[in-house]
From TrEMBL, chains A, B:
Domain Transketolase-like pyrimidine-binding: 352-524
A cellular component term, taken from the record's GO annotations: cytosol
Organism, scientific name: Nitratireductor mangrovi
Listed name of the protein: Transketolase
EC numbers, comma separated: 2.2.1.1
Positions contributing to thiamine diphosphate binding: H69, G118, P119, L120, G157, N186, H260, F435
Length: 664, 664
């Protein structure tokens, strides 16, 4: 068998595993796997550094299928090269309940799936984060320990999404030379030819942001290999536009949008078998082909062993630090660091904005945790995300710990996902809370993948004042609380801010949002510093000696208002509690007893939050009093806005007294 | 005074109005107005077709300040050219409660503010929609009635945002030659020099998508004028990269990020006055300068009068149609069209997906409303957004009514805002409901600006099946319901779908989201077709003869489940109502009596919706039974998923019976 024959048969194994799995599932996307099989075969056979039997080898190359609908391409490659998670039964079980082979690649379902993709453009932006993490860790641990490539397969859809521009320009600026993107340039999108909707010269576009670009025939293995060699030789990030035929081999559907997103049908598959000379029945890969693939899967075993040797021979402290980081464990003693910091706060009782409290906490955290990587989407001074330890990362020096992400909230969030997925680093990044909208698809993926990413979201209400309604989050706390597996923290003072940071960093199972004020806040916690009370999600801050008639729940900047309202109400002789609610998610995860005790028996329940009511009915019920926003904000000094929108201690007091008088 | 002197003094009037207003407000952004004053002066003095005394003249050029933080530039221009809404007192009242001069330009506050900007990149993408609307209306009404330019001033931030790429590539593809973008190329972003975060050659990037590009000295009025002439002569959309100095004239802050976003301070402003030879006190514009500006504001009066003459002379039907469209009124008889269509549905009782019901309704709507402009973000066949009337719009022919937006959800949504803002057209566009996350910032602006944009969001739950959790909205209904002034519709069958479409089109005060299924649904409405019951937001679908013990609320695809659950529960002898809730927003806008009657007195309240619980406590209370999702979905055939996640009639029945047995 000639080398070309071998290649073709190996690629055809991908094509038919994919087409047959889609056929059996009665849904899925055969077009991309059949079209990109040649590119993937060359990459996995000749270049990708990975070991299917040690799939989490830290220095493996990362392969990201950004065009996640082509999931069968990835599953086929994992099965063929010998990843244990993806058996032929899993392939047969494509898109069925409980299988590892979901419709789109789901991180955590199987080793070898480096990230969850499907929402277009995300994988490309994750890969920028991975490539950045590689350079940062390389700067810290050296070529012997961290030195790998990140490869991406992206389609037209990925490149039309705006997030791709943020990712491309960031990667180009930072000269991430070990990032190589294959553009599956098949001229087809779901609605038909790409020419229906786009006329962009992608190579020229990438080149405009400092990328090395090439075009090649995506069905010519030699041309593909040459292009990869050239890309690896370049010190710029590389785009290889591979001209391919979607659904390659399908007699009537190849090259059309009919090959994209639905089963080809028995007849078309039969025709493809004839056209490509593939005689094996569905889900059977001829043993010689499977052997070739499994052999390809062993190609990097020597590399891996050498790497293990280098790690074993490395300085013991360096090695131990690397291993700790890759396990995602915080260093011993971190809890003490936070506890000591809180003790200092008790003394100082600083009256500062929580964005400033966050900076103060970060100053302590970044000193204790060398793995944090900070950044901001061009709001460094406003988000207070930079501390004395975080030297900027530049195209020429990756030894820093701070990323100027530019005005790229979405790209930042997706890059942070990539950094977290890579391992060895804990990313945090800032923008204004209102702009969580700009990065919401990536925040959702942080949550879906369970990645420890910390979103530092300042200017968290009308309290930002004059910038007005476009910049004032109103619905955002509710909208973020709606996302499963995301923790939304809204601390009320410096102590709570430190505690929320501690919780966000200690939680390896998912992302956190810290919602922080622009305006100054007084210290509200007066006791119980030794415990992390924010960990309960909600806790009693003040209470009357006898049973309360009124409970006021509040978060963040409105805790101060709740405490002032309590004074006014108590002055009228009505017994009132105040509960701080730094995290609804953590609160509803507490025992039923704890929740019942915190919600309490008071007849009047009030919630104060400078956002919409939605999410609060759970605590106060539909009959509870809500002091907050019912529409968009306005542009004015913030004190005027709080008065204008009636978010004041007096308004809360009046509403409570009216309710009490009606009830009695 | 030389021509150059006149220009300089006119530009300086902008500079000092801006710097002084920011100073007085103690917050704001002096840098952009001072830097871009020359560009704006040339544009407004020599090119912009507008009439300050007839600010809503339909054929005026549109000017969009995409870099909305530079709002004082726009307010200064409106004041200087004589727009009545913006008086010198409004300028003095910059960023104060109740002023028309908000921190960022707010559509609706004053004539001349063509769109709300501030969230970066949105204005540029709105402008693409405006330029597109101009071409579409030109194709319909001719050069004599619609033939104007759309100008944009965008900053580095706008161009770093991903949405800008979606906007640029769409405009380039469609060859929107009357769109001209000034890039305020001042090399400065908030964190410092743009070189901290970006190295993109913007001209090369735009050229890669078919734009005409030029660079010019943004402080040389002749060079600016020449560039505008060349841009107007080109049949491609045009970028003019104007090299400017941020904070031009400020002695120590000009050219640095210190000029960007805070008051310059008295000393710096004094220095600028000296440097630029401006002796007038704050908020005083020397009368000769003001005269020159006011004269410039009169430049297009002749044009406007001629246009009015052409419109008056036009075919009466054409003129009446144009005027109706620009008023945003639906044609008479539209209600009858929908009523007749509903009658047909009563006979047929089609069992179809609501995305198909939507297509059926659109077939009727698009025949009756020539002003609808459909589209999809590359999911035409899935969103069912194309009907027989909607020929595609192409770069060479704008007589169509369908836009292939490409995989650009965010760009689509923002372009739709621009189309709606332009007037004369009603845009609707589709993608999957989960991808409302991708266009959320633009949806928010539709709501904030009160624009009639219809979002056709299909595949609205785990009911989409095999594509899995990345494609399954779970939190999205709640997250959308949290946005003020947005109506979220989730119809349960073909009749409800028609009614929701009618409501969305009739509402000129804001946007609507239609959440539609992929899977087929039976007809659930059995009576009361003559009235639009969806207009009440929620209504009783089935009820027992005697007082109900159980009320089940449901939306969309889960109404079928609620009805089946009712049967099971009634079979156990427990009296049960079912309430369909096509729109929570409309429901909570009803009278207290209506709401109380619909919520009812039943002891057990249940909500069934294949999403998260948030937003339902308002109807069922914290003690109500919720049958829905508590986390992300999974990949499997949809029937398996409903069973797996326990969203079934049996599960609802079991929960209700258990609750009834506990209670009794």
């Amino acid at each position: 068998m000639s080398s070309r024959d071998k290649h073709d048969r190996m690629a055809n194994a991908i094509r038919f595993l994919s087409a047959d799995a889609v056929e059996k599932a009665k849904s899925g996307h055969p077009g991309l796997p059949m079209g990109a099989a040649d590119v993937a075969t060359v990459l996995f056979k000749k270049f990708l550094k990975h070991d299917p039997h040690h799939p989490l080898w830290p220095d493996r190359d990362r392969f990201v299928l950004s065009a996640g609908h082509g999931s069968m391409l990835l599953y086929s490659l994992l099965y063929l090269t010998g990843y244990e998670d993806i058996t032929i039964d899993e392939i047969k079980n494509f898109r069925q309940l409980g299988s590892k082979t979901a419709g789109h690649p789901e991180f955590g379902h199987a080793a070898g799936i480096e990230t969850t993709t499907g929402p277009l453009g995300q994988g490309l932006a994750n890969a920028v984060g991975m490539a950045l993490a590689e350079r940062i860790l390389n700067a810290r641990f050296g070529d012997g320990i961290v030195d790998h490539h990140t490869y991406v397969l992206a389609g037209d859809g990925c490149l039309m999404e705006g997030i791709s521009q943020e990712a491309i320009t960031l990667a180009g600026h930072l000269k991430l030379g070990k990032l190589i993107v294959f553009f599956d340039d098949n001229n087809i999108s779901i609605d038909g030819p790409v020419s229906l909707a786009d006329s962009t010269d992608q190579c020229a576009r990438f080149a405009a942001s400092g990328w090395h670009t090439q075009r090649c025939d995506g069905h010519d293995p030699d041309a593909i290999a040459e292009a990869i060699e050239a890309a690896r030789a370049s010190d710029q990030p590389s785009l290889i536009a591979c001209k391919t035929t979607i659904g390659f081999g399908a007699p009537t559907r190849a090259g059309t949008n009919k090959a994209h997103g639905s089963p080809l049908g028995a007849e078309e598959i039969e025709g493809a078998r004839k056209a490509l000379g593939w005689e094996a029945p569905a889900f059977e890969v001829p043993s010689d082909i499977l052997d070739m693939w499994r052999l390809a899967g062993l190609r990097s075993v020597k590399d891996r062993k050498e790497w293990e040797g280098r790690l074993a021979a490395a300085d013991a402290e360096l090695r131990s630090e690397f291993e700790r980081r890759m396990r995602g464990e915080l260093p011993g003693g971190f809890e003490t660091v936070i506890a000591d910091y809180k003790k200092a706060l008790v003394k100082d009782k600083p009256k500062v904005a929580t964005r400033k409290s966050s900076e103060m906490a970060l100053e302590v955290i970044n000193a204790a945790l060398p793995e944090t990587i900070g950044g901001s989407a061009d709001l460094t001074g406003s988000n207070n995300t930079k501390t004395s330890q975080t030297k900027p990362i530049t195209p020429d020096d990756f030894s820093g710990r701070y990323i100027y992400y530019g005005v790229r909230e979405h790209g930042m969030a997706a890059a942070m996902n990539g950094i977290a997925l890579h391992g060895g680093l804990i990313p945090y990044g800032g923008t204004f809370l209102v702009f969580t909208d700009y990065c919401r698809p990536a925040i959702r993926l942080s949550a879906l993948m369970g990645q420890r990413v910390v979103y530092v979201m300042t200017h968290d209400s009308i309290g930002l004042g004059e910038d007005g309604p476009t910049h004032q989050p109103v619905e955002h706390l509710a909208a973020l609380r709606a996302i499963p597996n995301l923790r939304v923290f809204r601390p009320a003072d410096a102590v709570e801010t430190a505690e929320c940071w501690q919780l966000a960093l200690a939680d390896t199972s998912g992302p956190s949002v810290l919602a922080l004020t622009r305006q100054n806040l007084p210290a509200v916690r007066k006791e119980h510093f030794e415990e992390n009370l924010c960990g309960f999600g909600a806790y009693e801050l003040e209470k009357p000696e006898d049973e309360a008639e009124v409970t006021i729940f509040a978060t963040g900047s409105e805790v101060e208002i709740a405490l002032a309202a309590r004074k006014l109400i108590e002055a009228k002789g009505r017994r009132t509690r105040v509960v701080s609610v730094p995290s609804m998610e953590l609160f509803v995860a507490q025992s039923a007893e704890y929740q019942a005790a915190i919600i309490g028996e008071a007849g009047v329940r009030v919630a104060i939050e400078a956002g919409v009511r939605q999410s609060w009915d759970r605590l106060i019920g539909p009959d509870g009093i809500f002091i907050g926003m019912s529409g968009f904000g306005a542009s004015a000094p913030y004190e005027d806005l709080y008065a204008h929108f009636g978010i004041t201690a007096q308004a809360a007091c009046d509403a409570v007294l009216e309710r009490l008088s009606t009830a009695s």
